[in-house]
Task: structure prediction
Amino acid sequence: MPKRILQGTVTSDANAQTVTVLVERRFKHPLLQKTVRKSKKYRAHDENNTFKVGDTVRIIECAPKSKTKRWEVLEA
Result:
């Protein structure tokens, strides 16, 4: 099964080797036909603490690194 790759913006880099990434998706409402924006935050593993708040990054699914981390940063 292929691993999902998402793109988002780093909203927090306060923790060691971890960044919080806000991923926004857009879809058309099935009844109203209006474009709706939904967002979700993911915690991603950042090995060298290279990414800072405001950076646009791509994250990929991985095996669990901790209780909340199931993603790792792929590239900027």
